Amino acid sequence: MKHILLIEDDLSLISGLSFAIQKQGYGITVARTTAEADAIWAGRLFDMVILDVSLPDGSGFDICAKIRQSSNVPIIFLTAADEETDIIMGLDIGGDDYITKPFKLAVLMSRINALLRRSSNFGEADAQLVSGRIRVERLKGKVYKDDTELDLTAGEYKLLCLFMENPDIVLSPEQILGRLWDSSGNFVDNNTLTVYIRRLRTKIEDDPGTPKRIVTVRRMGYKWSPTD
Fold it and tell me: Could you read off the pLDDT of 173-219 as tens digits, one per residue?
């Protein structure tokens, strides 16, 4: 059974989410502070983390960053912090999804199910992806350029895997967003995708200003070139 860690301090929201998540057949553990979350996370493994940004004793951003030091578990931010800068920060430090309050429960459950499916699919895929000088070690969640390990966020990692799985195939922005995030969500737009593409290029390209791997195909999207 998949088990979810919910980090939230609103008791009424905890009650409603716990019921809905358990109704889907998932287990759930609740932490109401960052201190509780740290203690619980250290003691067991989870298949997903759902967390608020504003907690009584700290920030969900800090929790996300700490989790990403040791795990690629799917992370969903569920928060009232709806500024664009907050959304970009949440995704950039390793969040897989960012849902703002108020939200529709059915949409949240759809995104939970989609992320858990995709997480399972990543685990079942080939253990290694290699394209030129770029190598992805899936089981370890690590990426190398030549023999140098690259520091990628969770979103950048999944985006890179998607490109490398589809060499020389033009992927539209809609296709990319549909594969990486639930297609019913509208919080991720083309501007956010552009940020991911730009930051990924700075890490994998020899000259990010003249990309040779992630190539822009005008009016169509992007494609991964397996050779320089």
Answer: 888 877 766 444 444 567 778 888 999 999 999 999 999 999 999 98
Where do the structural domains in the chain lie, given as residue ranges?
3-122, 127-224
H/E run at residue 130? strand 128-131
Distances (CA, A) of 25 to 16, 19, 22, 193: 15, 10, 5, 33
* 3-state SS assignment for residue 90: helix
Q: What is the mean pLDDT of residues 38-62?
A: 90
Radius of gyration of the chain (CA): 18
Contact, 167 vs 225, CB < 8 A? yes
- Tokens 């969900």 belong to 60
Calpha distance 143→134 (Å, rounded): 7
Q: Return the CATH fold of 127-224.
A: Arc Repressor Mutant, subunit A (1.10.10)
- Distance of alpha carbon 175 from alpha carbon 95, whole angstroms: 20
